[in-house]
């Protein structure tokens, strides 16, 4: 079996989930409210405008479209300030090693991210060259949990969905991968990522052979 791998970016390959959280928290605080860690889980994998809608909802704050654009831009300015200072040291444990091992075996690799900042992040962390295809927030019209981002990734890799493995830290992303009929490695806890095929703390716990076995097993 020839597998193909589609990686989420924030929280899977790089430690940017914490920057998103800090920037959204700063925005909410500036509007006079706060939100919890549990609520923050619901923002993972969700695109910028949908995230803002959820946050405003939690704060019971109403804004018109023009104000929302301004707030989203403000949050992104803070976020871009943070990610502009990133380095390869912020690649999460095991991610570089797994990308290298997949690349060495000639296994195709795509990015499947909701972020419009993926280009900058991949560049700052020296990961760009690993990707045969990049599908990010600039390339899709619908947000995870819609499967579009992964379906496009598989298309670009010329891979059948049943041979694709998605790596996700977000519940919305796991849902999207399931809807795309792909195998899912949940990066995080089972309780936060229902429906994944396996769960790992980070990618250091994953070998290429294990991924191939997982797909073979699932397609039986
Ligand atoms: C996802 C993150 O990867 O990208 C979300 O998990 C984020 O938290 C989304 O909102 C969009 O990112 P950006 O960089 O386009 O604001
Ligand atoms: Mg993520």
Task: Tell me what you see in this structure.
It contains nine helices and six strands, in the order E-H-H-H-H-H-E-H-E-H-E-H-E-E-H. The protein is of the alpha/beta class and 220 residues long. A six-stranded parallel β-sheet has the order 3-2-1-4-5-6, sandwiched between helices. Helix 1 packs across helix 4. The protein is globular and about 55 Å long. Magnesium ion binds next to loops. GO terms for molecular function: beta-phosphoglucomutase activity; magnesium ion binding; sugar-phosphatase activity. Its cofactor is Mg(2+).
Q: Please, how many helices?
A: 9
What is the SS-derived class? alpha/beta
Shape: globular
Compute the average pLDDT: 97
Cα-atom radius of gyration:
17 Å
- Order of strands in the sheet with the most strands? 3-2-1-4-5-6
N/C terminus separation: 12 Å
Provide the list of bound ligands, each named once: 6-O-phosphono-beta-D-glucopyranose, magnesium ion
Strand content: 5-15%
Features:
220 residues; alpha/beta; six-stranded parallel β-sheet; 9 helices; 6 strands; 11% strand; binds 6-O-phosphono-beta-D-glucopyranose; binds magnesium ion
């Amino acid at each position: 079996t020839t597998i193909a791998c589609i990686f989420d970016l924030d929280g899977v390959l790089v430690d940017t989930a914490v920057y998103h959280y800090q920037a959204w928290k700063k925005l909410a605080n500036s509007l006079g409210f706060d939100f919890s860690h549990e609520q923050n889980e619901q923002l993972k994998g969700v695109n910028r405008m949908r995230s803002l809608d959820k946050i405003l909802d939690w704060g019971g704050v109403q804004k018109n479209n023009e104000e929302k654009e301004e707030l989203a831009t403000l949050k992104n300015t803070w976020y871009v300030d943070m990610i502009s200072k990133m380095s390869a040291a912020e690649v999460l444990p095991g991610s570089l090693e797994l990308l290298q091992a997949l690349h060495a075996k000639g296994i195709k690799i795509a990015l499947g991210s909701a972020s419009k900042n993926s280009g900058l992040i991949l560049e700052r962390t020296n990961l760009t060259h690993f990707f045969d295809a990049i599908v990010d927030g600039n390339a899709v019209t619908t947000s995870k949990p819609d499967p579009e981002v992964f379906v496009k990734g598989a298309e670009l890799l010329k891979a059948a969905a049943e041979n694709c493995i998605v790596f996700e830290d977000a519940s919305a992303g796991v849902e999207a991968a399931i809807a795309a009929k792909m195998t899912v490695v949940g990066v995080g806890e089972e309780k936060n990522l229902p429906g994944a095929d396996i769960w790992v703390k980070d990618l250091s716990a994953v070998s290429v052979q294990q991924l191939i076995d997982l797909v073979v097993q699932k397609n039986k």
